Amino acid sequence: MEAQKYPIGIQSFPELIEEGYRYVDKTRFVGELVKEGKYIFLSRPRRFGKSLLLSTIHAYFDGKRELFKGLALEKMDMDWTPSPVLHFDLNSGVFDNEDGLLTRLDNSLAFYEEQYGVETNDRSRNAIPIRLERIIKAAYNQTARKVVILVDEYDKPLLGIEENKDVFEKNQVLLKGFYGNLKSMDAYIKFALLTGVTRFNKVSIFSDVNNLKDISMYERYAEICGWTEEELKHYFQPGIQALAFKRNEKFEDTLATLRNYYDGYLFSEEGNRLYNPFSVLMALDSQRIKPYWFETATPTFLAKRVKANGIDPASLNGETSTYKELVNIGLGTGNPIPLMFQTGYLTIARYDNVRDRYELRFPNREVEIGFAEYLLPLYMPNAQRGDSVFSLQHFQNDLFNGKPQMFMQRFETLLKDLPVGDQSESTYRALTYLLCILSGTNSIAERHSYKGRSDLEVSTPDYIYVFEFKYNRSVKEALKQIHDRDYAGRFKLSNQKIFLIGANFTENKNNRGLKYKIEEFN
Hints:
- Helix content is 39%, strand content 15%.
- The protein is of the alpha/beta class.
- The strands form four sheets. Strands 2-3-4-1-5 form a five-stranded parallel β-sheet, with helices on both faces. It has a five-stranded mixed β-sheet with strand order 9-12-13-14-15, sandwiched between helices. A three-stranded antiparallel β-sheet has the order 6-8-7.
- Helix 8 (229-247) packs across helix 9, helix 12 (300-308) packs across helix 15 (365-379) and helix 16 (392-400) runs antiparallel to helix 17.
- The radius of gyration is 26 Å and the shape is elongated.
- It starts with 12 loop residues before the first helix and ends with a strand.
- The model has no long low-confidence stretch (mean pLDDT 89).
């Protein structure tokens, strides 16, 4: 069987097709986008195929019909006459200093100035808008065709640098002038598509551009980036079969693991859940299932904002938001939940039509585990990763071997290193949740039942642990609540051994400690 070529890191549609890489045909969306409107905005998490989408659109407007042979777009009624394309890629570049964005835009504009013979003597910040205007006019006049504008990762120069207010504000002003030409040059523009991670509604860089259509949560475009499970099985069955053979398991079992790690994204109220393309390609190419998306992620600023806003990490699964809240980009120091949704750390679990609210959750294990890794040091800044007590392997062994007593003793030791003034029931529950998630367990906080919500339920193949936490109260009260509300009742028919753990955290001037009691559930 001939090995499949996986397009890892390949964002050029022409290269992908010409070099025979495996391609999931999304070209029907190109035809639909071109007919959708003149100014389009699309938000998707990073590594989800936005750059490849723009490259595909670029190839279409270049009139390269031969690249689309056998693909959906070839069969659609399209105008293949070439149009001039200005393609700006802001994905690469360093934008945490005041010259980074200027340099990136200057280089891009200089390329098109040379292409269309536009002379410029002024390469300052103030000249950026007028230089773009001259290029657009020159492209139109020389080709007698209106211009296509493509901007990849429009918001990259702003993300993660909010604390550097001076640079943030300068980048904001520069981008405002640059994007402002989308409206002022309307007579010369045929089509414009901007992609990014965050939404534009509250960003002042778009205050002069009120004609962008945001299709990010349109159901008909929900699958424009990312892969459905049907697409995964259709295009990558040999790779999944090879991975299953290596793992010595059935095809469906390997597919279920891939689903658990990389599936789960939903960008509309209804529709198919989607896989992260980058992680799937890495898993099939390396023949190993690992958290690849987070190997390239740096969500430290998001983790800090979750902690600073007093959000319990254990409650992130189940957070709810309105549409209006989700389309606010959440820059600054406010509620991080919208930004976590937009950047892909949370996704839609379900839509409540009655309340008009979206329930959110971590999309999959890859994201949940990865985000927990960034959160844990914020709750335990004094802990050293090399400490034998802190070793996650020890916590994992305790949970997977049915030793809750050892787990709680180890946890009690860790609490002594917590910073003074950083204690509460939610803090202790958050720590327990993070340790359990990073130990590889399936951990669910505040699961609803007909009598209430349990604090934390943790499961392994052989054991289930039901936790109830109290703060400056009593262990007896915690265990009584587990029994009275029958939190473990749903597990009665399980073959796993069940432990009930009541814990009380004490904090006063003279004492900080943990008391707990463990019972077996019969």
